[in-house]
Structure formats: structure tokens, C-alpha cells
Amino acid sequence: MGILGQVTSEYLWTLKFVSLPLFVLAFGIFVINASGGESPKSDAEIVAALDTEYQAAVGRNDADTMDRILADDFVLVLGNGTVYTKPDLLKEARSRKIVYEQQIEVDDSQKVRVWGDTAVVTAKLWIKGSRDGKAFDRKLWFSDTYVRTKNGWKYVFGQASLSLPKEP
Question: Which helix (H) or strand (E) segment is 125 a member of?
């Protein structure tokens, strides 16, 4: 076999036993990622960040960010039975009747659980500020439900507890 035959033979061996398997592996990874094959952990991280972003937007009365995150049919139920919709919350944010000093999840309490295209966030929230000049300062627990849509995760339902007893 001449030098050209040896080079061609080595090239074909490399192509067959090295390059082709690497191509198949890379293509497989691409297909999994393109099909939305995210792990539950990455979904949990995405929803955790989104919920933290939402809480911060509420604290700034940032109606545009709230509008982007909330589903159009969003509902919030408070511990006293009051029900708010997306338009209610956006109107309240735009009015700036509430001025927040604090609107944060506390004590590393945030926990996200994911089941397929549904995620539930639970956390303890500290809210402090004033509404129409009247001060408030309380902590409460909440559960926020997110659903994966064709446009990403959307906040569809929230439920907040009554205020927790004051800590000593």
C-alpha cells in the first residue's frame, strides 16, 4: 500500500470511529436541548428567579414587569378572602398608593417544586411600607403557582396567608 493509500485508510478510520460518534453525540445533545428537555432543577431555578423578580417588581410598583410575568387570567387570594386579578394589581402598582420599604422573601425560605409544566413557589415574605399614609409591617407565607406556556413560565395563581404573629 502506498503512502496515499495509508493516509486515506487512516482518514476513513478516524472518520468512522472518532468523528462520526462525536457528531452523533453532539447532534443528540442539540436535539434534547431544542426539544425543551430541561431538567426539573433548571426549571426550578428559572421559576425561583422569576418569582424573586416578581416580588422585587411589586416592591418598586413596576407594573410593566408585573404585567410580563402575570398570566392574563391571574388570581391572588389573600388569607382574609380578598381576591385580586391581574388588572387589579397593575392598577394598584400604577397608582403608587402603596410605598414599600421592604417586599422580600426572608430566611432563605423560598422552595420551588416542579411537576411537569407546573411549579409552586412557597416562601415567607416580609412586607413593610405604607398604604395611603398608613404604615404596615408584617410577615406572611405565600404560595405562587406558575405554568409553562408557549411564551415561558407565567404566574397564574397566588395565595397569601394572614399576617404571622409578631416575632419576639
Answer: strand 118-131
Which of 104, 114, 123, 124 lies closest to 146, judged by CA? 114
DSSP string, 47-111: HHHHHHHHHHHHHHT-HHHHHHHEEEEEEEE-TTS-EEEHHHHHHHHHHT-EEEEEEEEEEEEEE
Residue 135 CB: number of other CB atoms within 10 A? 10
130: β partners: 99, 135
Per-residue pLDDT band at 2 (split at 50, 70, 90): low
What fold is seen in the domain 40-160? Nuclear Transport Factor 2; Chain: A, (3.10.450)
Angle between helices 40-60 and 86-95 (to 10 degrees): 40
**pTM exceeds 0.85 for this model:** no
Domain coordinates in residue numbering, the chain? 1-37, 40-160
Summarize pLDDT for 11-23 with one digit per residue, the tens. Answer: 554 545 555 454 5
Per-residue pLDDT tens over the stretch 102-114: 999 998 999 999 9
